[in-house]
Design a protein that fits this description.
2 strands; two-stranded antiparallel sheet
Length: 175
């Protein structure tokens, strides 16, 4: 099967390796040329071949690796973690060890994500309650041109500046 976006000329067979320039592999992978060079510098794309003129040449393996890196980044893995997976794969020479480590990393990220979701749900509840409080204040205030109610409090329920502890704390004064 032909890699997406690149036609193989008629005289070439399906088994003939396809080579892309950095611009072409960038377009196919959705990764900028600058980022591709950065990944190569970090060792995330080892063994990129070069043409006789020094231009980089990318094949199907590099394209697949770029897509894999993109998926891992989407899942929240840091480049250092991805680099660790690459190194583990290179050292162990097997997908099994790398997949076990990937499973561990994804489990850790999943726990962190669950914690963030709980924090965000708490923030959502707090924001919803405060919005309800603000709506009640708006209803109670009506159309006061000064934006203050009869008790001298501003729209957020704090005392007006100059009247008591609230204004002293706003100015950084402590008793």
């Amino acid at each position: 099967m032909n890699p997406p976006g690149r036609r193989i000329p008629n005289e070439m067979s399906e088994s003939t390796p396809v080579e892309w320039s950095i611009g072409e592999v960038s377009e196919l992978s959705g990764v900028s040329p600058r980022t591709i060079r950065y990944y190569e510098e970090l060792g995330l794309l080892p063994g990129v071949r070069r043409r006789s003129g020094g231009r980089r040449v990318y094949g199907a393996d590099e394209l697949e690796r770029l897509r894999f890196i993109g998926r891992l980044k989407t899942l929240g893995l840091a480049l250092q973690e991805i680099k660790e997976l690459n190194a583990l794969y290179a050292l162990a020479g097997s997908t099994s060890a790398m997949l076990r480590r990937l499973d561990d990393l994804l489990g850790t990220h999943l726990l962190g994500l669950d914690g963030r979701i709980q924090e965000l749900l708490g923030l959502r509840d707090e924001m919803s309650k405060y919005r309800e409080h603000v709506a009640n204040r708006i209803d109670a205030l009506g159309e006061d041109a000064l934006g203050e109610d009869a008790l001298g409090e501003d729209a957020l329920g704090e005392e007006e500046e100059g009247s008591g502890k609230a204004s002293a704390s706003k100015r950084g004064v402590t008793s």
